[in-house]
Amino acid sequence: MFPARWSPRAFLSEAVAPASLDAMFEAARWAPSSYNAQPAPFVYARTETDLERFLTLFVPRNRRWAAAAPVLVVCVARSHFADGRPNPHASFDAGAAVMSFCLQGQLLGVATHVVAAINHEAAYDLLRVPAHSYQALCAIAVGRRGERHILPADLQALEHPSPRRPLERVAFEGTWPPHSVDHSD
Ligand SMILES: Cc1cc2nc3c(=O)[nH]c(=O)nc-3n(C[C@H](O)[C@H](O)[C@H](O)COP(=O)(O)O)c2cc1C
User: Fold this and answer.
1) Whose CA is closest to 98, among 75, 118, 117?
2) Whose CA is nearest to atom 30 of ligand 1?
């Protein structure tokens, strides 16, 4: 069931099968997008290629655990439509593509952890992304989930599914919720 997905920090370094990775990118490719503009290409590296280079984009607190992942993906979004008009929904569409990627991974037993805390500026140079038309959004660590104990002690404490607000504080029929429902925390 796809809600069982969560974002681990314990990754095994074993390779992700190319067919699984292809299926995950294929799922991202089929994500819906505003005007079907499909504004969110991915750039990725595997252990066999230049993973170390991609890892330099991760901020130190994320690099600590992401270093073990055998695949690192960077998602960018094209900020304009083909006719030059700004696309205000580009990052929304990119989010849908990223979620499709992650959910397909879940179906295949491949874990993912999205991080937005990356060195965005460095991404343009490092990946040769044209900064005038694309926005570097986030990175995704991809791999098989490992046992909690492979992590340093402080990270072990974080290695569990995160809670969510109850449904009655998420979906409201008819109107915005009354003041008694606090959605700010
Ligand atoms: C846009 C975005 C940015 C995120 N950035 C980070 C990050 O920089 N570091 C991190 O450890 N997790 C990051 N996460 C993971 C979230 O903390 C995590 O998805 C969220 O708490 C829900 O937990 P779950 O994915 O385990 O269900 C990010 C997730 C998203 C969607």
Assistant:
1) 75
2) 114
Would you give per-residue pLDDT tens digits along the chain (185 residues)? 677 899 999 999 999 999 999 999 999 999 999 999 999 999 999 987 889 999 999 999 999 999 999 999 999 999 999 999 999 999 999 999 999 999 999 999 999 999 999 999 999 999 999 999 999 999 999 999 999 999 999 999 999 999 999 999 899 999 988 766 666 66
Report if residue 149 sits inside a domain. Answer: yes
Q: In total, how many domains does the chain have?
A: 1
Q: Which of 113, 140, 160, 164 to mutate to test the pocket of ligand 1 (most atoms within 8 A of CB)?
A: 113
Whether ligand 1 lies within 6 angstroms of the CB of 175 is answered as no
CA of 140 to the centre of ligand 1 (A): 10
Compute the distance from residue 114 Cα to the ligand 1 centre, in Å: 5
Considering the domain boundaries, does residue 86 fall inside one?
A: yes
DSSP string, 33-49: -GGG-----EEEEETTT
Instruction: Give the dihedral of Cα atoms 94, 112, 27, 166; nearest 10 deg.
Output: -70
Ligand 1 contact, 7 CB (< 6 A): yes
Q: Is 129 a domain residue? A: yes
Domain extent for 147: 2-169
- CATH number of the CATH domain containing 86: 3.40.109.10
Residue pair 142/73 in contact (Cβ under 8 Å)? The answer is: yes
Residue 36 lies in a domain: yes
